[in-house]
Amino acid sequence: MNNIVTGPDKLLHLVNQRHEISLTAATNELKVDRAVVDHWADALEEEGLIIISFTLRERFLLSLERYHLKKQYNMRALLRNVKSLYFKERSYNEHELASKSKELDEKIKVLNDKLKTLQHYQTLQVEIEQEKNAIAQEQSRIAVLERQFVERERQHEKERAEFHDMKAKVSVQERKLQAQKDAVAIKERMIAQREKEFAERMRSMEVRQKNLDDKHRAITRIASDLMRVSLANGHHAEEKK
Predict the structure, then answer these.
(1) How far apart (Å, rounded) are the C-alpha atoms in residues 235 and 227?
(2) Phi-psi region of 53 (alpha: psi -120 to 50; beta: other; left: phi over 0)
(3) Among 64, 29, 32, 28, CA closest to 45
(4) CA distances for 129 relative to 120, 135, 141, angstroms
(5) Each residue's pLDDT tens digit, 23-33
(6) 3 state DSSP class of 89
(7) Contact between 144 and 1 (Cβ < 8 Å)
(8) In a structure prediction context, what are the per-residue pLDDT tens digits for the chain, which is 241 residues long?
(9) Which of 62, 108, 125, 156 is exposed most, by the fewest CB atoms within 10 A?
(10) Within 13 A of 168's CA, how many CA atoms are on the CB side?
């Protein structure tokens, strides 16, 4: 994953790379408006990441390393000048000169110890600033991850909404299908009832038909019997004549 590089980040990288650069040169290098670069420089100095020095016509941006080196050089030069001036104030005999030189060497030793302590403190300060930069970069990465997480959550929420919508549509279709099945079942029961009624009617008609057939055969037998009786009576009447 690429880290987000801001304008102040670019300026800080440029200053640490060059160690010392004028505001004009930094503006030309970054190809940004001078007022914007000036604002970035002030922000970086407030964070303790760079040092700004001034001349009558220009501002110079110094890395912490260059600033500490200059400070050490100026301190040593000041000590040399103090020592030189100290011995020029008056004439000393050899014993006094040795005593004063020893005294001054002890003071210089104390100052050097303090300078080492200051250097150690400055080193710690640089390390702290590096840690702060690392934490800031990590926070930037975390912010990017959080934005990506939020975006994924929105996408998942959209997908969940689409899924629920589709599920609702499927549920509606299932209810419609169930209603159709229920309607078919009702029609099947109605058809079965009608078939049962039709079968009963058929059985009733068959019984009636059988009864009619029985009656027809009985009538036929009676008619036949009557016909024989009538014929028998006719023959008997002829014989009496």
Answers:
(1) 12
(2) beta
(3) 64
(4) 14, 10, 18
(5) 999 999 999 99
(6) coil
(7) yes
(8) 456 678 899 999 999 999 899 999 999 999 999 999 999 999 998 888 998 988 888 899 998 888 777 776 666 666 666 555 555 545 555 666 567 667 777 777 777 777 677 666 666 766 777 777 778 788 878 888 888 888 888 888 889 889 988 888 988 999 998 989 998 889 999 998 988 988 888 988 888 888 888 888 888 888 888 888 877 777 666 666 5
(9) 156
(10) 6
CB contact at 8 A, 69 and 118:
no
Q: Which two tokens stand for residue 23?
A: 């505001």
Helices (H) and strands (E) in the chain, counts: 5, 3
Q: What is the DSSP letter of 51?
A: E
Structural domains of the chain sorted by starting position, each given as residue range(s) with its CATH number in brackets: 1-64 (1.10.10.10)
CB count in 10 Å sphere of residue 163: 10
Q: For residue 210, how many other CB atoms are within 10 A of its CB?
A: 10
Residue 48 CA to residue 127 CA, distance in Å, equals 12
Residue entry with tokens 């590089």: 5
